[in-house]
């Protein structure tokens, strides 16, 4: 039956034949929120359902099943449309810009700055220090002075790309300090506009946010939004990791999902010493207490471990030294406690781990593998 060949002026004009059942069905259709179906389409669906309902009683159980299936279909469609609408709200301009970027962390072994979508700076220092001055029109990259023209009334987004094997520190135009770990990308305005300060992070960064009550500071990372006024915290939001983590060192931050499955959940407030873990795939967030030093001392060139999973430590070392490192299946549950000085060579660091555990390591192809002795 082609429902487009039928014309009905109102929902009340739907064909009859099912008495109270008809009124119940109309109520269900209205309640489902399915504005994607026209009145004519609803009428066509009703005709097919009503025809089944009015069949001989001997098949009534079969028709009841069909009615239930049709109702479930309408409700599912309605709920699906409603959820879709919830996730289709306009993204902030900064997030939309960062999402559309095609720059990849593996494109280069050098730190890169992209000023707007135009000028690109390659930084050979693997421990770069960058400072913005003069309301974003002037920046210092190590010992080099760089000027950036900013058009009045138009916000310009800059990008800092830190590949594996590198780290960088950045002072934004407002005085906020950011330390970027290996394998990270930060997108930020050259100069913040009045009313808000927003940046986008992929990877890991430690923030010391300059206090400015008139302009709240927000970090977008994966599907999370972290809002602060002035505080210090660490975010680890690598795309390849299952969960993103926020660890609060001081002050207070509020977390919420700005898109994805967790969008309908209430915001979560963190206190110093709290760690929030957020899984974007299902929108699940947990909060616990941790030793903050184990999550922020990387910016000072140290890993502090306290019964920490060896796999987690090796993942950090792999990014920091740009060297694939893993364990065999038998060694996957090992833990490590102690301090690792990242100013030392990779072999020195691996020797300390091997001496403190029951493991040895060897190189197979391009990968270092820890194994049981």
Automatic annotation (TrEMBL):
Residues 165-254 form the FecR protein domain. GO terms for molecular function: sigma factor antagonist activity. It comes from the Bacteria. Residues 1-20 are annotated as: Disordered. Residues 8-20 have a biased composition (Basic and acidic residues). Residues 304-369 form the Protein FecR C-terminal domain. This is FecR protein.
């Amino acid at each position: 039956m082609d429902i487009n060949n039928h014309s009905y002026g109102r929902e009340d004009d739907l064909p009859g034949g099912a008495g109270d059942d008809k009124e119940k069905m109309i109520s269900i259709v209205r309640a489902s929120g399915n504005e994607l179906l026209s009145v004519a389409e609803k009428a066509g669906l009703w005709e097919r359902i009503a025809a089944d309902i009015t069949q001989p009683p001997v098949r009534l159980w079969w028709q009841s099943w069909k009615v239930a299936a049709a109702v479930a279909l309408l409700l599912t469609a309605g709920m699906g449309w409603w959820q879709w609408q919830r996730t289709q709200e306009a993204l902030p301009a900064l997030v939309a810009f960062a999402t559309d970027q095609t720059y990849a962390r593996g494109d280069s072994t050098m730190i890169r700055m992209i000023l707007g979508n135009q000028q690109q700076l390659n930084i050979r220092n693997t421990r770069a220090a960058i400072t913005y001055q003069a309301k974003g029109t002037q920046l210092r990259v190590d010992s080099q002075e760089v000027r950036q023209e900013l058009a009045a009334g138009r916000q310009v987004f800059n990008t800092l790309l830190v590949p594996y094997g590198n780290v960088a520190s950045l002072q934004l135009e407002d005085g906020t300090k950011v330390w970027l770990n290996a394998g990270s990308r930060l997108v930020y305005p050259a100069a913040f506009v009045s009313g808000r300060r927003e940046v986008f992070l992929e990877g890991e960064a430690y923030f010391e946010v300059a206090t400015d009550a008139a302009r709240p500071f927000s970090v977008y990372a994966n599907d999370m939004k972290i809002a602060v006024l002035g505080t210090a915290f660490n975010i680890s939001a690598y795309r390849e990791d299952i969960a993103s983590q926020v660890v609060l060192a001081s002050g207070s931050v509020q977390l919420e999902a700005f898109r994805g499955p967790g969008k309908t959940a209430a915001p979560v407030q963190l206190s110093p010493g709290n760690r929030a873990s957020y899984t974007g795939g299902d929108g699940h967030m947990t909060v616990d207490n941790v030793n903050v030093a184990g999550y922020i001392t990387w910016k000072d060139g140290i890993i502090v471990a306290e019964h920490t999973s060896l796999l987690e430590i090796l993942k950090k070392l792999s990014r920091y030294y740009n060297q694939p490192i893993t364990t065999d299946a038998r060694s996957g549950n090992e833990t490590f406690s102690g301090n690792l000085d990242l100013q030392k060579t990779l072999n020195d660091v691996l020797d300390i781990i091997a001496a403190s555990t029951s493991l040895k390591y060897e190189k197979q192809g391009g990968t270092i593998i820890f194994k049981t002795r």
